[in-house]
Model the fold of this input.
Amino acid sequence: MEPVEAVRRLGGTATRAELRPLVTKRRLRQAVDEGQVLRPRVGRYVLPEVDAARAVAHELTAVVSLRSAALAHGWKVKTVPALPEVTVPPGRKIAVDVRRRVSVLTSRLADPDVIAGVTSPVRTVVDCARHLPFDEALSIADSALRSRLVRPGDLVRASEAVRGPGRPRVVRVLTSASSKAANPFESVLRAIALDVAGLHVRPQVGIALAGGARVVPDLADVALGIVLEADSHEFHTGREQLVTDCWRYDELVLGSWDVYRFAYEQVMFQQAWVRAVLVRAEAKARATRQLRSAAAA
Done:
């Protein structure tokens, strides 16, 4: 995989450890030398869009915000924005030619909302929750919690304080966020599942198997016995990993769990189909449990 595509798939920012299964050391070094990928510090790689957002924000006396701010904080995003995203105060006029190369949000920002020209961590999460689709915003909120720049208590306080248009959207993201999702792939799959009525999935739930073994799938609805896996074989294609995955799948199925596995391309680009599968999975699991209850009665 090419370095730019690898970093993009990993959320716009990546460590050397995350890139190692995808990109050779030589090819990554070449991409850095050519400016295709930036290395702000040893072992950390980002796409050039981060610097582009800072440059245009400086030019406009604006503030880096939304997904551009998330990337500036070192968080992973579902989609790297095509244009730098910045915020300007109400009444600021932006020339037409400038608008062609920047995405502008108009909003009032208090001093605590801005740190070194970028919206603060909590303000970034709230803005993304207000203005981005649920799956994009949830990916960023999850990453913010993983980074520990935002704590669960920060989101609780923010959800209680938020006002104005889009408040229900914001509260939904802030109360659904979890540090347990490993990456945007898993976050987006959870966002899709949360939109399915009757399905209540949680990330990284420990499941005890026969013989005392324990597995932790990406998502699980314990009440319905459904497991959802975000299959990232491009990130760990070794034979040993394949053996482990096969064992895990077989043991879960033998333990009466319904296991559904989704590829990156399906979750990111075929969401209507993924949602349709989950609707059918929920209905199937509920019908199965009703039959078992009737048989036991």
Observations:
- The chain has 14 helices and 14 strands.
- The chain has a mean pLDDT of 93.
- Residues 271-296 form the longest helix (26 residues).
